[in-house]
Design goal:
GO terms for molecular function: chitin binding; endochitinase activity. It comes from Pedobacter yulinensis. By secondary structure, this protein is α/β, with parallel strands linked by helices. The protein has a single domain, classed as Glycosidases (TIM Barrel), CATH 3.20.20. 35% of the residues lie in helices and 18% in strands. The chain is built from nine helices and twelve strands. It has helices at residues 2-18, 86-98, 111-119, 121-137, 156-172, 224-237, 263-268, 290-303, 322-330; strands at residues 42-48, 66-72, 102-108, 142-146, 176-181, 204-207, 245-250, 252-254, 260-262, 277-280, 283-286, 306-310. Helix 5 links the parallel strand 4 and strand 5. Helix 3 (111-119) crosses helix 4 and helix 8 crosses helix 9. The relative contact order is 0.12.
């Protein structure tokens, strides 16, 4: 009998061992999708905080793909100054979003502040954290860095580090990064302050091809020839990828002395906006009229991946709009 009990006990122990709970592996959580940069052709516009949104027809936003509110200013310790005109910011961003645009904040300020900020890993980290929080809390699509300008031998290395850290942080949260940069037509430390490695960090570069009055004897501060020279430098000499190059155009004219006025001012004074010259307030102004804007837009469609305008308010709300002319040249529907 005892042998039967012993046999039964062994059987139960064996059964219990076989019934030991099977541990099923937990379902693997898919990692966030890898960031994919938008490589479509861009039409970028800036809206400065000192402009009244009521001065721009909301329908005008349909003529853009990206809109930046300018500017958010950093402090040397990596903190951010209060945003100028937050009410205007909210209005402009909401109007742009209503038209399906990608929206962003442009960060700019005194060059010396950027030099100090970028020189320390701690302040770079603080700055990156703060601007990311701003972008996310305001449900923006990205950020534009407008540091004018990092110079070779002063901040080229730390500018590259800052751009990389911004890129890593923003892209991790599916936000884009752009940078406004010099036209590069003047040799020296300004254009050499942009290291080639930076091309890999930003989604696109807004090349500011204006404010160059007198370049090679040209009276126009944003001549077609200067635009060609700028693209030759950045794309051919430096190797910027075509898909990241955005050709910048002004919506304003300048005198040889540096005074400026918007295309809307010229139109109000009865100037022919098809041309590039205005006699305005007893001075000679040169700008980019409809004909030149169309020529540059064609150039951009061949050699770049976008166009940019500084700034939205300077343009007219009428049929003479140079931004409208660019859209028409591209055959783009904005109705």
């Amino acid at each position: 009998m005892r042998n039967h009990y012993l046999l039964l006990a062994c059987t139960l122990l064996l059964f219990a061992a076989c019934k030991k709970e099977t541990i099923h592996p937990k379902a693997e959580v898919d990692p966030p999708a890898a960031y994919v940069s938008d490589t479509s052709f861009k039409i970028v516009g800036y809206f400065p905080s000192y402009r009244d949104p009521a001065g721009v027809n909301p329908a005008k936003y349909k003529m853009l793909t990206h809109l930046f509110y300018a500017f958010l200013n950093p402090r040397a310790d990596g903190s951010l100054a209060p945003l100028a005109q937050p009410g205007r910011f909210n209005t402009v961003i909401q109007q742009a979003k209503a038209q399906g645009l990608k929206t962003g904040i442009s960060v700019s300020g005194d060059a010396n502040i950027f030099v100090t900020l970028a020189a320390s890993e701690a302040t770079r980290t603080q700055f990156v954290s703060n601007v990311l929080a701003f972008v996310r809390s305001n449900q923006l699509d990205g950020l534009d860095l407008d540091w004018e300008y990092p110079r070779q031998g002063v901040a080229d290395q730390t500018y590259a580090l800052l751009m990389k850290e911004l890129s890593d942080s923003l892209h991790k949260h599916n936000k884009f990064l752009s940078a406004a940069i010099t036209p590069g037509v003047y040799a020296g430390t300004v254009r050499d302050g942009i290291r080639t490695e930076v091309f890999g960090y930003a989604d696109f570069f807004n090349i500011m091809i204006y404010d160059g009055a007198g370049w090679q004897g040209e009276p126009n501060h944003a001549s077609y020839n200067m635009t060609v020279a700028s693209l030759n430098y950045w794309l051919n000499t430096r190797g910027m990828p075509k898909k990241k190059a955005v050709l910048g155009m002004p919506a304003y004219g300048k005198t040889a002395a540096g005074a400026s006025a918007g295309v809307r001012d010229f139109e109000a004074a009865g100037v022919d906006i098809n041309g590039d010259y205005a006699r305005y307030n007893n001075a000679d102004y040169y700008f980019n009229g409809i004909t030149t804007v169309k020529q540059k837009t064609t150039l951009a469609s061949q050699r770049c991946n976008g166009i940019m305008f500084w700034e939205l308010y300077h343009d007219t709300n009428s049929a003479n709009s140079i931004i409208k002319a660019a859209n028409d040249q591209l055959g783009r529907n904005y109705n």
